[in-house]
Input
Amino acid sequence: MDNSKSNPTPQLAVDVRNVTKTFGVGDTKTVALKGVVFEARQGELLMVVGPSGCGKTTLLSVVAGTLNFEEGEIDVFGASLHKLKPAQITEFRKRNIGFIFQQFNLIPTLNAVENVSVPLLIGGMSRRDAEEKAAATMKKVGLGEKIKARPNDLSGGQQQRVAIARALVHEPRLIICDEPTSALDSETGHCIMELLYEVARSPQRCVIIVTHDNRVFQYADRMTEMEDGRVRRVHENLARKNDMAGSLVAQV
Output
């Protein structure tokens, strides 16, 4: 049997090659990324873990195009960020990348559906169409009855779901999450991770999560471990693969 045909190599969503990023100059110079090599596949949920200050958030920031870098190359869904001008990177990010933050970053003066509409409005969609699509996305994350609620009237878990809806509403191919569950209780955190895991199942998408929250490690397809500005190890999450295999057997 030809396993290469039955199990084709997944396509890369993110390909980082020998990237270096520094902050400061002279005595204050800090090398945050030291020739990093990093890959994320289409259709997977990848977690990036490691001690504080090891370069995890910096890595995601250069992948997202919100930080420049001095050396190396980065391709995101075929777009070579190292070859693009700043305005082109901004346009690419608006169309292709969604962000989920630990602190939610919702606008308190806007209601939930208005918060979710923001990426669409930035992209030029009319307010009416943007809010209609935002409301439909909120239903998908289980908040269809909360579209008019202000952030202060929502629980932490509900606010995080609004933030997820905002990240998904413009149908980005890459979802980047910075500590999305560490401020949530265990039950809410697992609900959020189940949702993100389902999002990552699309073969044309990828979810990358930086986290210290070992309660949710089980949801990763793969784990990338960083230390001192470098990727030290990448390994498959065998427990998750076994869970998936068990689910498929149960469905047969």
